[in-house]
Design goal:
This protein is mainly alpha-helical. The chain has 8 helices and no strands. The protein has one domain. The termini are far apart. InterPro entries: Gly_transporter (IPR005115).
């Protein structure tokens, strides 16, 4: 596992997740404390779940960079006045929110897969840890803000996270885990997520029939 690549992807994910958490909290009319908690959970919640599962010290609580990253992004969003949104405009439909959410989903999913392989998990463990790391923060944020989890009703969200983990597992098996292949997976995952959202792609629904 390349530590440099992992740190780059994790910090990209944290920065973009902090932005999406900020925007989501603004939508729910939170105060600045609420905005911080929502951003913190979105950005670091998945990593906390990941570390609890693999049984290692929680990275966000043993290193300063993740928390500082979140604080810097909150300040940046405040300075750029990302909280000024028309009352008729839905934040979850803003390109900034969708893009930042896609970036953190894919980057965190790759990080989760990398950590799982480092702990010698099998393919099921890799897929599960990619999902927990990729979607876990958003789920915690939505539960806190009393929302139906974003991943349950939008553009193959959880499916893409699992698919990224699945692909990375086989990339590792074939020795294709250098920076070029990883960035290719990252780019393809973000593009796929954007297409899935705007095209309203979803898995077949199971409808209850009386």
């Amino acid at each position: 596992m390349s530590v440099d690549i992992l740190l780059i992807l994790e910090n990209i994910g944290i920065a973009s997740a902090a932005v999406s958490g900020f925007l989501f909290a603004v939508r729910k009319k939170c105060d600045w404390l609420g905005i911080f908690i929502a951003s913190f959970l979105t950005a670091l919640g998945g990593g906390i779940l990941r570390d609890m599962i693999v049984g290692r010290p929680i990275y966000s609580f043993t290193h300063y960079l993740p928390g500082l990253n979140v604080i810097i992004m909150i300040i940046f969003c405040g300075v750029m006045k990302f909280y000024k949104v028309s009352k008729h405009e839905k934040i979850e439909k803003k390109p900034l929110f969708i893009m930042s959410d896609a970036i953190d989903l894919v980057s965190f999913s790759i990080v989760g897969a990398m950590v799982a392989l480092h702990y010698e998990y099998n393919i099921f463990g890799v897929i599960l840890l990619a999902f927990c790391n990729g979607a876990g923060g958003g789920i915690l944020r939505d539960v806190l803000l009393n929302e139906i989890p974003w991943m349950l009703h939008t553009g193959l969200y959880g499916t893409i996270s699992m698919l990224v983990g699945f692909i990375y597992f086989f990339m590792d098996k074939f020795g294709a885990t250098n920076i070029y292949f990883i960035m290719l997976l990252f780019t393809a995952g973000v593009i796929f997520r954007m297409f899935a959202y705007y095209k309203s792609w979803h898995l077949p629904e199971v409808r209850y029939e009386k």
